[in-house]
Design brief:
Number of strands: 13
Distance between the termini: 67 Å
Strand order of the largest sheet: 3-2-1-6-5-4
CATH superfamily of the largest domain: GAF domain
Oligomer: single chain
CATH topology of the largest domain: Beta-Lactamase
């Protein structure tokens, strides 16, 4: 029976989507057959997540006698412990832990939160020796442990923020400042994860490992989009609007087509129909227009019917560029329509879905920064249609 004291820790780890992938990657990188995330306190060793191919017998919530583990020592010195052949090791050949559990190979990396609190360890064990001398193994597992710690910190910050914001008179300002700092702080470890995935890809030809690396890369790319949305939101609310750099663009149509192809590659099951007839010499920020379209396409894929195509049209009407996107599916609820282009409107309207509810807000802000408009219609018969309009040439406002 799981100790109730550690249920919040187990739930916190289980809510981190990357943990199962991390444990699988740990096994593949080390060649070991058991990996886990453990919560380690001054009295308890508790498994929070487990990937077990040797029937070691631990499940999430399972405990080991603290003093029988090396993690008890790691909690005190907070340094990694790694050995690949215990019976031949000058120290660990006499250590009680390998003898108690019949271990030959062992690696354990401390998980330390930003405030210095020791959470536990990311560890792997096996009853047979393993080659753990490659420095990249320890470095990569350390990055994984940092990612877990960072995710736990984020959860703690978000929970603390919810409590504070519920009673704060300036709820919006506090939330905006919080996510701005969070977005900046996430960029550095995310870059490290991407670089590690790229490095590991050059060192393996195993198909399963490559698939796992692809999953890590795709997840990091999606996280990168979320972070950029957070930063754009913060800039828009705290800095007077999302910045755009408008200039004369001759290949906006190609930019739109490439954006569509990128979204199609990420959602191979979705069907897209496009009709693009955009002239040259459009005065705009092409990257921001691409971001606008990407957000609209992502919204259509998420909320549209999987059995009906998503229709993209872009053309010139008079002196304006018009981009429209239509999809079938459940109409947007009437109570949500007035909030649709506001940040976090999905959660405030009781809607569920992926993301933070910033995509449409940012799309509207990009359109506004181009002196344009973004409008939506939605009904059961015609489906949902977003229409963005902005001047094709420079206009003083």
């Amino acid at each position: 029976m799981t100790n109730p004291e550690f249920i919040p820790d187990i739930e916190a780890i289980s809510s981190i989507d990357a943990v199962p992938v991390i444990l699988s990657m740990v096994k593949h990188l080390t060649g070991m057959r058991f990996a886990a995330v453990a919560r380690v306190t001054e009295r308890n060793w508790v498994a929070c997540a487990v990937d077990d191919s040797i029937d070691f017998g631990l499940k999430p919530g399972g405990e080991l006698v603290l003093e029988s583990t090396i993690c008890h020592e790691i909690r005190q010195h907070q340094q990694p412990v790694i050995f690949g052949h215990a019976s031949a090791h000058p120290i660990f050949s006499r250590h009680h832990t390998p003898q108690t559990y019949g271990l030959e190979s062992y690696i354990s990396i401390p998980i330390v939160k930003a405030n210095g609190d020791f959470f536990g360890t990311l560890c792997a064990i096996d009853s047979v020796p393993a080659n753990l001398d490659e420095p990249a193994i320890a470095k990569t597992l350390t990055l994984f442990a940092q990612l877990i710690a960072m995710s736990l910190d984020t959860q703690s910050h978000l929970e603390a923020a919810k409590v504070e914001l519920a009673s704060a008179n300036e709820l919006g300002r506090l939330r905006e400042q919080f996510i701005a700092v969070l977005g900046h702080d996430l960029r550095t470890p995310l870059s490290a994860i991407r670089m590690s995935a790229d490095l590991l890809q050059t060192k393996t030809e195993d198909k399963r490992s490559l698939n796992l690396l692809s999953a890590i890369r795709n997840s990091s790319m999606r996280m990168g989009v979320l972070i950029e949305n957070i930063l754009d939101f913060a800039r828009g609310r705290l800095g007077g609007g999302i910045p755009v750099q408008r200039k004369l663009v001759d290949d906006l149509q190609r930019t739109l087509l490439l954006t569509l192809e990128e979204v199609q590659a990420s959602h191979p099951r979705a069907t897209f129909i496009h009709e693009l007839n955009v002239p040259t010499g459009v005065y705009c920020d092409a990257l921001r227009i691409s971001q606008l379209l990407s957000n609209l396409l992502g919204n259509a894929v998420t909320h549209g019917s999987a059995s009906a195509p998503i229709i993209l049209k872009a053309c010139a009407e008079g002196d304006e560029i018009v981009i429209s996107l239509s999809n079938q599916g459940t109409p947007i609820p009437a109570p949500l329509m007035p909030l649709l282009f506001e940040p976090f409107s999905r959660s405030e309207a009781g809607q569920r879905g992926e993301g933070l509810g910033l995509g449409l807000y940012i799309a509207a802000q990009i359109t506004a920064a181009h002196n344009g408009t973004l409008q939506v219609t939605s009904d059961a018969e015609s489906g949902t249609c977003f229409v963005a309009r902005f001047p094709a040439q420079f206009k003083w406002v």
